[in-house]
TrEMBL record:
SUPFAM superfamilies assigned: Periplasmic binding protein-like II, Winged helix' DNA-binding domain
Name used for this protein in its record: LysR family transcriptional regulator
Organism of origin: Cupriavidus oxalaticus
GO biological process: regulation of DNA-templated transcription initiation
Family recorded in the similarity comment: Belongs to the LysR transcriptional regulatory family.
Example of a GO MF term: DNA binding
HTH lysR-type domain boundaries: 1-58
Keywords: Activator, DNA-binding, Plasmid, Transcription, Transcription regulation
Length: 297
């Protein structure tokens, strides 16, 4: 089976569109369509449902996608490892980040890569913790950074952070600390459910008889911070999630106490395929990069 055909199949599946996939791959859409038809003929069934908005995977296509990704990853790893024998680590490393780490860490990671390993190419996916764990399992990403809010067996956190009430920097109506029960009187913007922290916060509030005044739900940390900045709302996030906004002097964090809520950050690699030398270099660098961000807060 031709690896270019497999790469076309995976790209179509990820982008949900033949036209977008052809643009991303730099091949004519007609040629990509012929490749797909040939692959479907070889498989003996349809891989995609055609819709007015693009394409979606059939059951056959969905079962084939993880294997196709694995084959492509293994082939790329073989090439990269051979190149690494003669040169410094190189090749693509895919990283999954939760939204709270995406903004402060992406720039630090790129700076580290350019200064230390310019042959490494980075691909960053942003998602919730559950999505990142799924991507690690199916091999979509090589390295994942995600959060836990409860003990999880033998897993060891590389960082533990407190959660903060997020407010505008010029909002001085709240002191240096905020008790959990004080959240009841504040208009809040929180992540949409299902979200592990949202669920834990609501459990704590229900236990203590605190009724939250939820004004906005969003699946984007950027949208939530925008609502705090311009919409007069408050939110609850880890302090590192507003690193840029604190540097700009537009947002501040107030520790939540009585009780405090802790967030554990975990770093894991995929077991779906072997790790390349480039992936191992990124994995080794990440704890130090994360710590430098927290130390600067």
């Amino acid at each position: 089976m031709d690896f270019d055909v497999l790469r076309g199949f995976v790209t179509i599946a990820e982008l949900g569109s033949l036209s977008k996939a052809s643009a991303a791959l730099g091949v004519a859409q007609s040629a990509l369509s012929r490749q797909l038809s040939a692959l479907e003929s070889e498989i003996g069934g349809r891989l995609f449902h055609r819709t007015g908005r693009g394409v979606t995977l059939t059951e056959t296509g969905a079962s084939m996608l993880p294997r196709a990704r694995g084959l492509l990853s293994d082939a790329q790893a073989m090439v990269d490892e051979a190149a690494n024998v003669m040169h410094s680590p190189s090749g693509l490393v895919s990283i999954g980040l939760v939204p709270a780490w995406s903004s402060p860490l992406s720039g630090q990671l790129v700076s580290w890569q350019r200064n230390n390993h310019p042959g490494i190419r980075l691909r960053i996916y942003e998602g919730y913790s559950g999505e990142i764990e799924e991507w690690l399992t199916n091999g979509r990403i090589d390295v994942g950074i995600f959060n836990r809010y409860r003990p999880a067996g033998q897993e060891e956190a590389i960082l533990t952070s407190s959660m903060y009430l997020i407010a505008r920097s010029d909002d001085l109506s709240i002191g240096d600390e905020c008790k959990l029960k004080a959240l009841a009187g504040l208009p809040l913007a929180l992540m949409t459910r299902p979200n592990a922290f949202r669920m834990l916060l609501e459990e704590n509030c229900n236990r203590d008889g605190v009724l939250l005044n939820l004004q906005l739900e969003a699946d984007s940390a950027t949208a939530i911070k925008g609502a705090v900045l311009t919409g007069g709302l408050y939110s609850v996030l880890p302090l590192h999630s507003i690193t840029v906004e604190r540097q700009m002097g537009i947002l501040r964090g107030i520790p939540i106490v009585d009780p405090s809520i802790k967030q554990s950050t975990l770093l894991k690699t995929t077991t779906h395929h072997p790790l390349t030398a480039a992936t191992r270099e990124v994995w080794r660098a990440l704890p130090g990069l994360l710590k430098s961000i927290v130390d600067a807060l």
